[in-house]
Amino acid sequence: MYIEKIQFPQDVKALSWSELDILASEVRQVLLKKLSRKGGHIGPNLGMVEATIALHYVFNSPEDKIVYDVSHQSYVHKMLTGRVDGFMDPERYDMVSGYSNPKESEHDFFTIGHTSTSISLACGLAKGRDLLGGKENVIAVIGDGSLSGGEALEGLSNVGELGSNMIIVVNDNDMSIAENHGGLYKNLRLLRETKGKAECNLFRAMGLDYIYVEEGNSVKALVEAFRKVKDAVSPVVVHIVTQKGKGFKPAEMYKEQWHYGMPFDEKTGEPKFQSSGEDYGSLTANFLLERMKSNPGLVVITAGTPTVMGFTKERRDMAGGQFVDVGIAEEHAVALASGIAARGGKPVWGVYSTFVQRTYDQLSQDLCINRNAAVIPVFCASVYGMNDVTHLGIFDIPLISNIPNMVYLAPTCKEEYFAMMSWAITQKEHPVAVRVPGLQVESRSDEIFDTDYSVLNRFRMSRAGENVAVIAVGNFYSLGESVCDKLCTERGINATLINPRYLTGLDTDMLDGLKEKHSVVITLEDGVLDGGFGEKVSRYYGGSDMKVLNFGLRKEFADRYVASELMASNHLTDVQIVQDVMAIYK
Amino acid sequence: MYIEKIQFPQDVKALSWSELDILASEVRQVLLKKLSRKGGHIGPNLGMVEATIALHYVFNSPEDKIVYDVSHQSYVHKMLTGRVDGFMDPERYDMVSGYSNPKESEHDFFTIGHTSTSISLACGLAKGRDLLGGKENVIAVIGDGSLSGGEALEGLSNVGELGSNMIIVVNDNDMSIAENHGGLYKNLRLLRETKGKAECNLFRAMGLDYIYVEEGNSVKALVEAFRKVKDAVSPVVVHIVTQKGKGFKPAEMYKEQWHYGMPFDEKTGEPKFQSSGEDYGSLTANFLLERMKSNPGLVVITAGTPTVMGFTKERRDMAGGQFVDVGIAEEHAVALASGIAARGGKPVWGVYSTFVQRTYDQLSQDLCINRNAAVIPVFCASVYGMNDVTHLGIFDIPLISNIPNMVYLAPTCKEEYFAMMSWAITQKEHPVAVRVPGLQVESRSDEIFDTDYSVLNRFRMSRAGENVAVIAVGNFYSLGESVCDKLCTERGINATLINPRYLTGLDTDMLDGLKEKHSVVITLEDGVLDGGFGEKVSRYYGGSDMKVLNFGLRKEFADRYVASELMASNHLTDVQIVQDVMAIYK
Fold first, then answer.
1. Domain locations in chain A?
2. In this complex, is the C-beta atom of A404 within 8 Å of any C-beta atom belonging to chain B?
3. Choice among B81-85, B262-266, B487-491, B528-532 with the minimum mean pLDDT
4. Which of A279, B142, B366, B384 could be cross-linked to B362 through a Cys-Cys bond (beta carbons 3.0 to 4.6 Å apart)?
5. Is B131 within 8 Å of chain A by CB?
6. Is the pLDDT of residue A415 over 90?
7. Which residues of B touch A189 (CB under 8 A)?
8. Which residues of B touch A531 (CB under 8 A)?
9. Which CATH number among 3.30.420.40, 3.40.50.970, 3.40.50.150, 3.30.930.10 corresponds to the domain B3-253?
10. Which B residues in the span 201-230 are in contact with A, Cβ-Cβ below 8 Å?
């Protein structure tokens, strides 16, 4: 196999045309074998095989610098830059991350994972080069789906002013994660239909030069195109048309399902593990679809990730005009929601914790200053969520809960989640975010939950005890139960257990009341401590005799951690918490 | 005068063409009289007189809904919608805010102040209308300068999918606050030069219909254009060419200076008050210009507000390629800075506190995960900064300081600010933000400040005392001094005074050391308490016997407040603080 011999990009350059084609085919085999065992971004990488080979054939990485948007499509790049073992040797599968990573290789320039950043980051590399007198090529590789994001569009316009070398490869497979949404995609279609010849051209309108490559899965066609733009003295877009999932029939046919996937049968594409039981996405979608029938103003919004809330193609069709995918454009999503609410509708924007942080200003200005009653369920907000450093779901409490007028609710289980959602989508007073409680669906069907949350910041005391009070947020409520049980059985302390429910304010009456019989209050939250919920409790009691301990995650960018280890290193096991409590309990 | 009789938009519709022209001239007189006395956004409103009259002549506000971007150009709209007294009667000048405001009038739909939001907000109004079966026109009015912002570009693309009525009036005066930057402005120029006929058209490339109005300061031409698009069944851009500052010679000639101004002589344009003494903008610009000479990689970045860091046209010219204005595109600015730093350059992005919040995700992902050593001075971060609800400078500590890897420094005075900046622009280890200490330049020239901040989170004890310790952040350090003085003279307490310097971490050695001789620690910060600095100190001491009080601002969107009153209502006078301390001091 040729691929085993590729240790550096120079090795690619030594191959003939026919050998390059064989290499492409080998790369696909290796990809499929690893991805069928480990899962990952399947469609995006299968589509980029030839383009990546051609980039390394023409340019001289790492002197020339290639920046991949999101970098979920950089697996082939990794194979060609000294990391092929991470794809061929099952023992070493984990040596490479799923995204570009400067710690792995000098051929990676940024740790990237969020969308629409490549053009701006690469623009910085180019500007730095110009200031310091460098001569290298700077290349941004961005998919059509990422173009809808504001940062990418800002970048496109600004590159138009750079006046020096920068090459933007637009990898157009006519797909985002799901289908594309946004008027700009009509222009991409026009460009494809006219083989790049249409006068009306988004990229030229942004002040950029432009060339079109129809055969984006032909190494030779791509090499010719890249040779044309190499060392260009002004910014140029190379618009290449590729096939997402190329070379693996199921992925070619069902592009959305095969964007990212778990392990599967390499021949048939059948998933190896069937997910069983409930998930919050489907539950949420079914709940909203049911409510839509009687509420024509209820509308579900996604920013390019429809299945985060369970809106598969079938459910999207059922929702019709009551479902809006704005493409990867989170800022627009929030402002859109604010406008819909202002007009009397009821928008629900479902979003991953890691992506809600793309909208602080819109949450604050467009939504919360205006007190428009949009609803925002926040998914995968947990130490048990995605564990790549670029996709952590542990920063949303500081981000959201310190914005005035926002109501951020933290349900502890399925039943409480839907009780809160039911209230949120009927009330008209507050912007409401709801922290979906973890990844596993936990049921507490024997408990009764409030149906009205309009009197804000009322905590719920579920066990009245004394001496020690445990305030356990959202899906850490079970941990709180466990701590209370341990305190009781092992230390004879009948602790009070509180479900705070609200992350955006304190129940000062209840906190004051605790002073009577308690000397220690602890808080447990599934997120970073800095700027979070627990600190507010500490501040409140600061001038009193109450001892307070905040449990949660320390402020750090943990990467590909094992959740149980990270929990333990943050003193988040019930055993550790009880020990810490006893150390200050008198 | 006609203007006195305009109580509702209907009154505009009753006028003849010649009367409308007279009205326009009266509006300008009234505007100039008020603005010469009170200051405000001069150029933008003078340019929009005819367009606003024409909008109200053709459309039926508030049934038809007009959303103004930034809304700094909505003064004329306010005059024509029942609020003319707020412009004509000096006694009532303050009854209208400088931005659109639903509390003032049913003709305003959002409280707006940040840029690039109008299209997305209006898109929400249109979507809500479609869901609920409404028929009204929805109009977004956006200046060319605001188009460079990501949220606006996301909005443009998404409107292209709406498939129903929405009208986007692009008010093109060929200016942002300063000159425009970005490749898209080449397209706007091409459109102006071809009278809208160029085939390559940004708006059409976004999937929108388009018409061009050359005479954007002719009521008649505008009325004709707006009539054409009224009740349009698909989204359309009306590109109107206006003259910024129209009708006032100084504002026509010096557009940047007259974008926003303080009171001036109505005839000559001479400012009524000469600013005297130093300001942090000019000091920063001169400092950086000096350093640029010996450091070719040092580059100053602004997102459309060059003078926040004192970069007037003259200084921009001096900096040459070492100054980059990316237009109003804050997200791109941060990613650009990260890329420049990654390539070995030293980017310095100066930004207002209120606008840095547009970049949380870029600070976290593009910059801090990558630990690139960009420098971000944050201006007007204070209760004494801008006091419009949309421009508050009190949320940056929670926003910035809870991001891992970031170093956020809070100097107390000019000398410390430049000591920190000198370190920041030479070190290569950390992304560093510096909270410029207040609006007034305070000097402590007799003190000596550290020149090296690379050992992180080392607080500085400036007065060693006992019993009570005062940790006073940044420009509240003087308040801390005053509190210590009062504690000494009035209560006989020789308090310890600490300048923490770092907002992103605690000096746990010093905090532990305080336990020996102190029973009370207080923190003072010029920002909201929630998620801020003081809460971290409270958390740290939570399990100990130390009493802690955090002083700062409560979480709220205060609007057009009097700073001294807001301070007092938050217990932020030295007298109140001493009282609060004594209430818990034993």
1. 3-252, 280-435, 461-584
2. yes
3. B262-266
4. B366
5. yes
6. yes
7. none
8. 398, 401-402, 531-532, 535
9. 3.40.50.970
10. 201-202, 204-208
DSSP-derived 3-state class of residue B361: helix
Q: What SS3 class is residue A237?
A: strand
Give the gap in angstroms from C-alpha A309 to the nearest C-alpha of chain B. Answer: 20
Reported as a single tens digit per residue, the pLDDT across A452-492 is: 999 999 999 999 999 999 999 999 999 999 999 999 999 99
State the pairing for strand pair A40-41/A260-261.
Answer: antiparallel
A97 pLDDT exceeds 80?
yes
Rounded Cα distance, A59 and A63, in Å: 9
Average pLDDT for residues A265-288, to the nearest whole number? Answer: 90
Looking at beta carbons, which residues of chain B come within 8 Å of A331?
120, 150-151, 154
Average pLDDT, chain B: 96
Equal CATH topology for B3-253 and B460-584: yes
Measured between CA atoms, the residue of chain A closest to residue B140 is A339
β-strands A460-463, A467-472 pairing: unpaired
Predicted pLDDT of residue A307: 93
Q: Print burial letters for B223-235: b (CB count within 10 Å at least 16), e (below 16).
A: bebbeebeebeeb
pLDDT (average), residues A405-429: 98
CATH number of the domain at B460-584, please?
3.40.50.920
What digits encode the pLDDT tens for the residues B354-380?
999 999 999 999 999 999 999 999 999
Which residue, among B498, B555, B508, B550, has the nearest Cα to A543 in the 3D structure? B550
Q: Are A488 and A521 in contact (CB under 8 A)?
A: no
Interchain CB contact of B360 with A (< 8 Å): yes
At residue A217, φ and ψ (nearest 5 deg) are -115, 25
Task: Provide CATH code, domain A461-584.
Answer: 3.40.50.920
pLDDT category, B439, cuts 50, 70, 90?
confident
CB contact under 8 A, A182 and B160: yes
- The tokens describing A387, both together, are 């564990």
Assigned CATH topology for domain B280-435: Rossmann fold (3.40.50)
Which helix (DSSP H) or strand (DSSP E) does residue B212 occupy?
A: strand B209-213
The pTM of the full predicted model, rounded to 2 decimals, is: 0.97
Domain A3-252 in this protein, CATH class = alpha beta
CB contact under 8 A, A343 and B134: yes
| Record: contact A158-B299, CB cut-off 8 A | no
Measured between alpha carbons, how far is B586 from B578 in angstroms, rounded to an integer? 13
CB B339 to CB A296 under 8 A? no
Q: Which DSSP symbol is given to A368?
A: I
Structure tokens at A254: 């069902």
Alpha-helix runs per DSSP H in A59-183:
75-80, 85-88, 118-132, 150-159
Those of residues 294-323 in B touching chain A at CB distance below 8 A are: 296-297, 299, 321-322
Amino acid at A92: R
pLDDT, average across residues A40-45? 94
- Counting one residue from chain A and one from chain B, the pairs whose CB atoms sit within 8 A come to 409
pLDDT at B274 over 90: no
Put simply, the chain B residues between 259 and 298 with a CB less than 8 A from any chain A CB are: 296-297
* Nearest CB neighbour to A336, from listed B120, B185, B557: B120
Is the reported ipTM for this assembly greater than 0.95? yes
Amino acid identity for residue A503 in this structure:
L
